[in-house]
Design goal:
Layout: H1 2-27, H2 42-58, H3 61-79, H4 137-141, E1 147-153, H5 167-175, E2 179-185
Parallel strand pairs: 1-2
Helix pairs in contact: 2-3
Length: 193
Amino acid sequence: MRTIIKLVRISFLFGVLFLLSLVLISRLDAPALPALAVAKTLDDLAWWKEQAVEADLAGFSEVEAEYKARAEAFIKFQSAPSSLPLEPVPSMKTELYIKQDREKKPSLPLAKHEPVSGVYLGMLGADRRVGYDITKIETVYGRKHTIFLSYVGWRKVQTATDTYFPKQNADRAKALGGALQIGWEPRYGLDDV
């Protein structure tokens, strides 16, 4: 029992320390180490000095040292006799584009349902609303498909037709004016196929 009480006290103390650290971090006006900040005006120099003072008051000596170092580097750069004015970089015009080859017209006439480019995969009606009945696909999805997909186990007798071939799906696809892609699943290994 004492161990549990000690663990609760320790976890409570860690929680309080975590919340206290969040409060202290939220009081900082700027991140601890701003990435590649460069003073461009005297206002920036004054801001860095102010941040160094605030970091000192909050007890963050590393942050204070960083802001002081940046302020000193700016003063040193401004007072250096050999400092040359920076030349602006010439602007460059950039444009985003996607390079695409022009579509080549097929040399041979396309077969029925063959797309001009790419691959047309068959529609599998595995949605609950369709229930593998391809005649419902157009009403469910609001779009007519011409190629349908049917997965059939190799040497699996189709109960509706007493054959290995998915005749029922083939007849439905034919009635819809479409085609049927058949995915044969090797149920007993590839050697059986």
